[in-house]
Amino acid sequence: MYIHGFLSHSMVALLWLVVGVLIIFSVGYLSYSKYLAGFVGLDEDAETPAHKYEDGQEYVPAKKPVLLGHHYSSIAGGAPIVGPITAGLLWGWLPAVLWIAIGNPLMGAVHDFVSLSASLKHEGRSIGYIIGEYVGDEGKNLLLWFAFLTIILVVAVFAFVVGLVFQKYPSAATASILYIGLALLFGVYLYQLDLPFVPGTVVFVALVFVSVFVGMRFPIQLSQQTWIPIILLYSLIASVLPVWTLLQPRDYLSSFLLYAGVGGALIAVIVGTIFATSSQPLVTNIPAFTSFGGNQTLGTFSPLFPMLFVTIACGTISGFHSLVSSGTTSKQLNKETDARMIGYGGMLGEGLLATLSLCAVAVVGVTASDAAGGVGLALPKFAQGGGIFLSSLGIPVSFGAPFMALVMVSFLLTSTDTALRLGRYLFEEIVGTPETQVQEATSNRYVNSFGQCVVAYVLIASGTWTPLWQLFGSANQLLAALALLTGTVWLANWSEKKQLLSTGVPMALMSVVTVCALVYLEYYQNLYQGLILGNTQSAAWSLALQVVIGTILIVLALLLLRKGVANVREARGKQPAATDGGVEE
């Protein structure tokens, strides 16, 4: 009784949460990532796919800081903000911070790094192609279809969230438009005019921060419903442009904004705690732990297992990252050894964003109006809490909150159009070499991207945000399990001496957790509680669609897991066909 009361009501300085996560992440990067880099045989002198197949469109070598900016901006979307905040409100900050601090370096960062390394060793191909090399075309198609369905969910939820942020913080909309224009100019500056990199960086980064002030002076005020099709149209255009025109320069420039926001806020927590300079005490104002069934004052029952893990999602491990790593990042790596910082280190950066998001809701606390929950609660909490953090550095909350909103939307925009580009890659792999006019039309980059936008818009327009978010989280985590399966299959076929625990244990854990989550969501919550008992406000057709999609995802995943495990067992009983970690020539 005493322990429960202590966990429910005691206040803890946010400093301990931040410092604890930083120490664990530092140990992980300095030791575990170094071991993994040697384990997968990264070679600084090896020719990367970006050099071998350079085409000026998709395969374009990028400087390490430029590519790190793109990769970090692409993987760090709205999920590591919404997820930890929702989890903190439901179950308390302690379960959330433990899962982020322990799971990220041992599972999420391993997942990202191995996905990137495997793609490097297979000519920059996707994880679908890689698993197909070992388990056949049927396994490849299973994974590609699973990933493609997940991508459409990603585009839908991120476009929804960007529209909401632009509505709540119109200054962020203006600033975002300005820095997209700056990115186009920076791309011309670097790749067409071939002008000096460092001076250009200084000038254009300064202009990005100027755009923040311009946005506050001239905000663009539109409704979320108006913003969503505009965002999808922008994403469509950005996804078909060559990577050097917008993707690389924009993500590089916006990365400085993101580093300033995340890094500045984390530093502010330390400074504000030590010197007491923040606008309010930087301590937790939510319980460390509520109950296994979640915070009942928010009007919902949600079991800690398995829902904690799929709710936090990208802050700890995300299948979407494997698509970024093997879809765009592997095609731009200048050196193989860059994969350690970009793959493993980039995921640790997302873990810091998740920690910051959790700290934001912890310092703001819960009010009576928070019963609505979900994304509408998470976004204001992040901006409001971030504004309080930055006040420690002498920045007014009135400026800090909109600035943190812009930081948040910078993550979201890059993730949305990168997801659309990845969806195009995946569908092109599904179709293969077009043999009919229909296949040729659907694999066309413009038709393909437009089709994804249409489906995403329909999902958003259905008005079923909560089940859509839950389905996204579960599908995303299950995709992570399948990406880890791909890495395990690759290592098993590479050499019988390769240990499989680093990828196999996280794969098994995430497979069990996410299948349990999908079963709970689709068959208990949507089918039984929603369709049979009618305990829901969602439309019946929407719930039925969710159940069908969830069932398809479960079947696809189980079939692929069965094939992958069988291949690993077979590979351990014979000498591997390829000994260099890649495909045979």
UniProtKB/TrEMBL annotation:
It is found in: Cell membrane. One of its GO terms (biological process) is cellular response to starvation. The chain crosses the membrane at residues 12-32, 81-102, 142-166, 172-191, 198-220, 226-244, 256-278, 298-320, 341-368, 388-414, 446-465, 471-493, 500-521, 541-561. Keywords: Cell membrane, Membrane, Transmembrane, Transmembrane helix. Residues 15-364, 378-517 form the CstA N-terminal domain. Its main location: membrane. It comes from the Archaea. The keyword Secreted does not apply. GO terms for cellular component: plasma membrane. InterPro entries: CstA (IPR051605), CstA_N (IPR003706). Pfam families: CstA. It is a multi-pass membrane protein. PANTHER family: INNER MEMBRANE PEPTIDE TRANSPORTER, PEPTIDE TRANSPORTER CSTA. This is Carbon starvation protein A. It comes from Halarchaeum salinum. The lineage of its organism: Archaea, Methanobacteriati, Methanobacteriota, Stenosarchaea group, Halobacteria.
